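Technical appendix A lists one of the benchmark inputs used to test multi-chain prediction within the project. The record comprises two sequence entries:
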Amino acid sequence: MTAVLDPPETLPVLDTLAARAVEARRLVVDMAASSRGCHLGGSLSVLDILIAALHRVSAGDGTEVVLSKGHAAAGLYAALHVSGVLPENPAPLYGMAGGPYTGHPGPKVPGVRFPTGSLGHGVPYAAGWALSRRIAGRPGLGIAVAGDGELQEGLVWETCQVAAAQGLGNFVLVVDRNGGQNDGPVADISPLPHLADRFAAFGFEVAQTDGHDLAALTGLFGADRSTARRPLAVVADTVKGKGVPAVEGRAASHYVTIDAARAAKWKRAIR
Amino acid sequence: MTLSGRDAYRDELTALAAADDSIVCLEADLGGRGHPFQAAHPERFFNLGIAEGAMVDMAAGLAAGGHKPFASTFAPFAALRAAESLKLTLGYLSAGVTVMAPYAGVSGAWFGTTHHCLEDLAILRSVPGVTIAAPYGEAEMRAVVRAAVRSGKPHYIRTGRNAAYDSIDWPGEQPPLVNWEFRSGPEEVCLVSVGEEGTRLAMAARPAAPGTAHAHLVYLDHAHLTRAAAELARHHTRFVVIEEHRGQGGIAEGLALLLPHCEVTSVSADQSWPSQGGDHEEVMAALGLDLPAVLAAVDRAGSGAMTASAGAAAR
């Protein structure tokens, strides 16, 4: 594959993206400190994926990113803000009346085209976007970012079947494999063994990566896939609560509400 | 030869797509072999397989990319299996997607209850912003499809299986809000027909109930129904709605709320589940949807002996 973005990303670019990730994590903690609280663990696990994907969007080739695991809305709002798509700081308005920053994202938010949160739907939205680009002979990817728990939804696999059958090479499904879901570990509730093999069996190209490695992620998302005939699945291993030591790797980080003092302490510890 | 609703849809959409390359035709493996759109525009025809939810959601993605997707599958699979996708895509997103739903009502007849859909109007009427149409006959279907392409707004269009009907004539290009097949004095009962078989029954009933008026409705969503109700109330006070749908959530219920000073009853599907075979007419009769039921309802309305409730109670 050739690249839309200049490969490999230069260190200054990666440094910029890493700085955005730190800033975004602080915003997510601010949202956890709102009166509403937020899905903290999953917002922090998916942040690097979103920042790398939005970097591809900034190339201006018509790539669309759909956060299918919409409960990580705080992560999405923060990533959109630090990436320059969302001008205002969403943190003070998160969950508040009169603002668009609901607990699951909708199209009133700049940079968000589709409503997600009822799990599974973001995957076919992105596939439909990819199909639209292909019919029109235009470049750009449809990138769906799903959770590993979300893969329990049949709609995800229904769409994988369609995407492979249609040869949607410009469709990318990223799995934020943080190992957790609402009621506990994915492995305890509905395990997903041989996940990469499953996607391969559907006819996908498959890449496995560290979901916090911005160089690897930008490399995967930066490719020009306009001539690809197989969709791409990226199984990204992540850590729930990544970057905030107090909650990193803890299942209890799924939904968190904290006070301002604790938020200040957690933000200072973000690395 | 008059075309069935779904054949008229396919033919009209194929013709429109020749001049509009944003039109995309989606099927979920129920389009049949030899689909005319596929023959004429293969690069814009997609049989996505048996994947109704994915089809409607992908249509949202296509619409966001600037296309006009028309997605078709049987009404029970569109309105029930993919109900959440319809809520989000047609309702919340207000995406320019048209869902074409044949096999509405019990037009699937002997195929059985899994292939019947007596609930779709109740579901779609509760989703704001969706234009709902139930055209009667080829000409109405063509006009509704043309309007859907022009509007760029979300549409749900219900039709039957293979039966063909001659539309009621109307002046102009677009069917009127209320198409008066027969007018009569304000003291007379007015039949209000909905959909293919509801309209057929209304027209069959009129010779046996002289003087009864007949108003046919094409568009059934709340916005259209509100305006239609105002026109109906200017001419009559007693209405019998004939609809191939459950009474609950049907058009009669909607009209009854919109016309609190009128008497609205309905001839609609009763509370039973058709569990036997038969052709379309026979399965409808098993649900209480037949000509004797319509005539009895007209008699009750005319004598003032009816109840104020809609649905099977009126039979």
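Chain B has a mean pLDDT of 95. The radius of gyration of chain B is 19 Å. Comparable benchmark entries are summarised in Table A2.
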